[in-house]
Design brief:
It is a single chain. This protein has a domain of about 90 residues: Rossmann fold, CATH 3.40.50. Helices cover about 40% and strands about 20% of the residues. It has 16 helices and 16 strands. The strands form three sheets. Strands 1-5-6-11-10-9-7-8 form an eight-stranded mixed β-sheet. Strand 12, helix 14 and strand 13 form a beta-alpha-beta unit. Helix 7 runs antiparallel to helix 12 and helix 9 packs antiparallel against helix 10. It is elongated, with a radius of gyration of 27 Å. The model has no long low-confidence stretch (mean pLDDT about 90).
């Protein structure tokens, strides 16, 4: 009996058209990363479990895929907790390990981008997978707020190039720490931010209920409601903050940092100060970002923030870092549902030469090789087949032009008959004219 082909939950095969769409997004993102001076790196798919655990909060740690011991070690214990290795949960913590381990080879500030898969043991749903790609850019070795401005500009430029209307939300963990200080819950900042981060999912009443269940007193719950009720422009929100955090030194520092960023971003930047934005990762210490689109119902399609203490976990102190990430899979879903991929984004072949026998095929091959030498995506149908079969193949592949050598007028072998697959218009072109047209 044949084995039924299946995949693990939360994973999927990616077909050629989808891969071409992804490459279009990735080429756009990489181009902007490089424009801003970031260099590419890669890290292993698995890390030591001790590298990852304790960095993402209690809920995040539960989603780490740990690798079971093998051989004799597996016989001694089947307990997942004792696993020594794990699949990476994100790209940021492994990057901190990378920086410390390779610090003598890196110049600081060091700016890197990294595009690789990560794994999380989540419940699969629309736009959320157990295996997915992250597209990260980080800078370490500087606490300058100019980096915050750069990352906001990166978000703005990438999404403009992709044709998506977005909102870039900003908050600051120092503001959240200031709230915790004013509300008398400094020792429960992590629990507070985890609750706050759920506001979009379960609403104000849901967060208040969860805080009550977790043992927060009424002062803290009333404080949360006060935060959630603040509205208005960025300037009006800052004024409200100055009143609430007047007695908190760290809160006032947060206001200072946010004010600098808001004052110096470009006038057309869709930046919104959102005090309920928490991003429940323990390692953030300053600015935090999240990107959403109003055009379609989807979770965040980007996020990040500043982390001052992450490398110190691995023994390298006083190295501030900041980074952002693009959610490749969700961005692809959004562009698909809005039908905004350009036609060339899923076009693997620009011109296809039809094959009606060996003589035609060999003559076509000369043209194909000449076009490929000019960087043109040219191909030849491998088998001698009927016209209908080849035209269906070209249509299904999204080919822009087809070439028909056998239909050329006698004495014009140095020219080629091509047909536009969309308009059906035919032209006789020389090699130079064809290259110019396709380029």
């Amino acid at each position: 009996m044949a084995l039924k082909p299946t995949l693990p939950k939360g994973t999927r095969d990616i077909l050629p058209q989808a891969m071409l769409e992804r490459e279009y997004i990735l080429d756009t993102v990489k181009g902007v990363f490089k424009k801003f001076g970031f260099l590419p790196i890669e890290t292993p798919a698995m890390e030591n479990a001790s590298t990852l655990t304790g960095k993402y909060g209690e809920e995040g740690d539960r989603l780490i895929f740990k690798i079971m011991p093998r051989g004799e070690k597996a016989k001694q214990s089947a307990d997942r907790i004792k696993a020594k290795e794990a699949l990476r949960y994100d790209l940021t913590v492994p990057f901190a390990r990378f920086v410390v381990q390779n610090q003598n080879e890196l110049g600081f500030p060091f700016k890197r981008f990294q595009i690789q898969p990560v794994w999380r043991a989540e419940t699969p749903q629309r736009g959320r997978y157990r295996e997915f790609y992250q597209c990260d850019a980080d800078a370490v070795g500087s606490d300058s707020l100019l980096l915050e401005l750069d990352f906001i500009s990166i978000y703005q430029e990438v999404f403009q190039k992709l044709g998506l209307s977005v909102k870039i939300k900003i908050n600051n963990r120092k503001l959240l720490a200031g709230f915790a200080e004013v509300f008398g819950i400094e020792d429960r900042l992590t629990d507070f931010t985890i609750c706050l981060d759920k506001l979009d999912k379960i609403g104000e009443d849901g967060v208040a209920k969860e805080m009550l269940e977790k043992g927060f007193d009424l002062k803290a719950i009333d404080g949360f409601k006060q935060i959630a009720s603040i509205s208005g422009t960025n300037s009006e929100t800052l004024e409200s903050l100055k009143e609430i955090l007047a007695t908190s030194e760290i809160g006032r520092k947060g206001i200072e940092e946010v004010s600098f960023v808001l004052k110096n971003v470009s006038n057309d930047c869709p930046l919104i100060l959102d005090l309920t934005l928490a991003r429940g990762l323990d390692y953030y210490t300053g600015a935090i970002f999240e990107v959403v689109t109003d055009e379609i119902q989807m979770g965040s399609i980007g996020g990040g923030g500043r982390y001052d203490d992450l490398t110190s976990i691995f023994g390298l102190k006083n190295v501030s870092g900041i980074g952002i990430s693009f959610g490749l899979d969700r961005i692809q879903l959004v562009i698909q549902e809005l039908s905004r991929f350009p036609k060339f984004a899923n076009q693997s072949t620009q011109i296809l030469f039809f094959n009606f026998g060996d003589e035609v095929a060999l003559e076509s091959l000369k043209w194909v090789n000449a076009l490929r030498a000019q960087g043109i995506k040219a191909d030849i149908y491998p088998d001698s087949s009927k016209f209908k079969k080849q035209i269906n193949y070209a249509s299904n592949r999204g080919v822009a032009y087809i070439a028909l050598i056998e239909n050329m007028p006698e004495g014009e072998s140095n020219r080629l008959l091509i047909r536009n697959m969309e308009t059906r218009k035919e032209e006789n072109l020389s090699l130079e004219e064809l290259v110019a047209k396709l380029k």
